[in-house]
Design brief:
With about 425 residues, the protein is α/β, with parallel strands linked by helices. About 45% of the residues lie in helices and about 10% in strands. The N and C termini lie far apart (about 55 Å).
């Protein structure tokens, strides 16, 4: 027998990657699947970023383990301009995706990790893989499943000792919620009082449907906020696998620890990718216009799906950024029960295997199984085609969805039809 670390052997594949693979298999077999399960940006990488990648394709040099200096400088300027965060380029680190940098930070930190209910699927498995302590903080639909300062304060009052690290994600995956400056200020006051470290996951930062940029808790709690971002969402370059993290001044004493860990694990991100990222984070006007247009399309699609489902009485969180929101099937509990389906996981399996609709169950996002909520991702469309439709000055209405995003249009129709059956 080969012995394996029990913390690793108990992990299951990432829910988001697993459902994407399952949908691919079913589609390859000829099944029609409406894919509301996976959250990859549907848009193309901006040509200026691609050109920068091509221009440096022959660069085979190892870069510093902390990253290309010019890229770190560009990210520092980006954080200051768009999120009000002052970050020293010397303490900004480049890694193979923000996911990896989050994991390495979790490995580094001791104490308990606080995860708000309704958070990204990989936070908890990363913590479990090192045998770390954690607590899931209760959130509520009425507040778009955002953690409140009161809830955080109450937890700290009951659990006053030990190092605490809060993982915060805004715009949020899976809820689509965006924390307002007022909410972040209130949370920062609690974090200050209880000396909480914050890992602020801002990978969707510029995909904000209200004003094109999202507030960062790093602006209000700079002392102990470690900020994460990358190329995958706002620049539609998930396959490039490049992320960054920014240390605050108070935590600069950990610099050597992070530098050593990175040098002993991934060494450095591929040189051509870093040069492409340098172009991305220079935020050229054309690149910014591309992000703005993509955000307009996502906002219109999110509103369309939200309005359609709300019209038949489905409870939905408000999509304010990114490309997800949560939907609730409590209204249809009796109908699903007639089919011997009682949990969100059972219903999600039934929808995919029997009805060709892919959703992720709320259990993947730290909700209890009896709560019939699901994450709906609205990116099952060809972003290049949708962008062409926008260029043609097509109004972003239902006819736009039908013409340029047919999987979204027909998928919503199928879901509505299915839910109608559950009411009879």
């Amino acid at each position: 027998m080969i012995k394996i670390n029990s913390q690793i052997s108990n992990l299951k594949p990432s829910a988001t990657l697993a459902i994407n693979q399952k949908v691919k298999q079913l589609r390859d077999q000829g099944h029609t699947i409406y894919h509301f399960g996976f959250g990859q940006s549907p848009f193309g990488v901006h040509p200026k970023i691609v050109d920068a990648l091509m221009a440096h394709a022959d660069n085979n040099n190892y870069l510093p383990s902390t990253g290309l200096p010019q890229l770190r400088q560009n990210i520092s300027c980006y954080l200051k301009k768009y999120h009000g965060v002052t970050a020293d380029p010397n303490y900004i680190y480049i890694g193979p995706g923000s996911k990896e940098l989050l994991y390495q930070t979790i490995l580094m930190l001791e104490g308990i990790f606080l995860i708000p209910q309704g958070s990204w699927v990989s936070y908890l498995p990363q913590i479990k893989s090192k045998g770390g302590e954690f607590a899931i903080l209760k959130t509520y639909f009425e507040n778009n499943y955002k953690i409140t300062a009161l809830s955080l304060s109450n937890y700290c009052r009951v659990n006053p000792t030990g190092q605490k690290t809060l993982i915060l994600n805004s715009p949020n995956n899976p809820t689509g919620a965006v924390y307002s400056p007022e909410e972040l200020k209130s949370l920062s006051e609690v974090c200050e009082e209880h000396n909480i470290i914050v890992l602020s996951d801002e990978i969707y930062s510029l995909l904000n449907f209200q004003n094109g940029r999202s507030a960062s808790i790093g602006e209000y709690y700079p002392k102990k906020t470690i900020l994460f971002g990358g190329l995958s969402k706002i620049f539609s370059a998930g396959g490039y696998r490049l992320g960054f993290m920014a240390l605050p001044a108070e935590l600069e004493f950990t610099h050597q620890n992070f530098s050593s860990l990175f040098s002993e694990t991934f060494s450095a991100v591929a040189s051509p990718i870093q040069h492409a990222a340098c172009e991305a984070f220079s935020l050229d006007k054309e690149v910014l216009m591309g992000i703005s247009n993509n955000t307009k399309i996502l906002k219109a699609i999110g509103k369309y799906v939200f309005d359609k489902l709300m019209a038949i009485g489905v409870k939905c969180t408000q999509p304010q950024g990114g490309f997800y929101f949560m939907i609730d099937f409590e209204k249809y509990r009796a109908g699903f029960a007639k089919k011997q389906l009682f949990t969100s996981e059972e219903i999600a399996n039934y929808l995919l295997e029997k009805r060709g609709i892919a959703l992720l169950p709320g259990t993947d996002f730290y909700f209890e199984g009896h709560v019939l909520n699901f994450r709906l991702a609205y990116v099952d469309f060809d972003g290049s085609i949708a962008a062409q439709g926008l260029i043609k000055n097509h109004v972003l209405d239902e006819s736009f969805i039908q013409e340029y995003c047919p999987n979204i249009f027909h998928g919503v129709e199928r879901l509505i039809s299915l839910l109608g059956e559950m009411e009879t």
